[in-house]
């Protein structure tokens, strides 16, 4: 069931499964990276990574109809996309609760490809490793190196407060998160049918 709150409009996986079979005007936009999309995506969804959506919001909005569902891994990037689209007049976009993994867990039809760690898991590993390295280096080398742990903690706090992730953005540019099919803006936008 769709539900409205002051900042997020959510759609549960069961309702999306029903909509996929009943609504021809449904557009599902997956805002994860191409590598994440390749790993697993909802059958029939369109991959428009968040950086492309952010740079070309107006062009994308011209192709979207009134029944738009935004998906990512957990909802954070989908919410950022919803806010962008809301700013250009698409105020009916919904966010899939639980993201693509939640849809798959609810028995939704997904396409699975080459398996990779999702970006959020990579962020947790990197942040944890840097904190651990800072604490160990502070004990073994110089107490000043403990500042690394503090800097990572500060960055994570800022990330939570602003609902952004600089480390995630940096990791998304790493070679292991790239794929040969990284879409261009034109390819990402033009794949979505007009007049929906």
Summarize this, please?
The protein has ten helices and eight strands. It is α/β, with parallel strands linked by helices. A six-stranded mixed β-sheet has the order 1-2-7-6-3-5. The protein has a two-stranded antiparallel sheet with strand order 4-8.
What report would you give on this structure?
- It contains 10 helices and 8 strands.
- The chain is α/β, with parallel strands linked by helices.
- The strands form 2 sheets. Strands 1-2-7-6-3-5 form a 6-stranded mixed β-sheet. It has a two-stranded antiparallel sheet with strand order 4-8.
- α1 (13-22) crosses α6 and α7 runs antiparallel to α8 (147-162).
- The radius of gyration is 18 Å and the shape is elongated.
Mean pLDDT over the residues = 87
How many strand units? 8
**Topology order in helix (H) and strand (E) letters:** EEHEHEEHHEHEHEHHHH
Q: Judging from the principal axes of the Cα atoms, what is the shape?
A: elongated
Distance between the ends: 22 Å
Q: What is the helix content?
A: 40-55%
Structural class: alpha/beta
Order of strands across the main sheet: 1-2-7-6-3-5
Query: What is the CA-based Rg, rounded?
Result: 18 Å
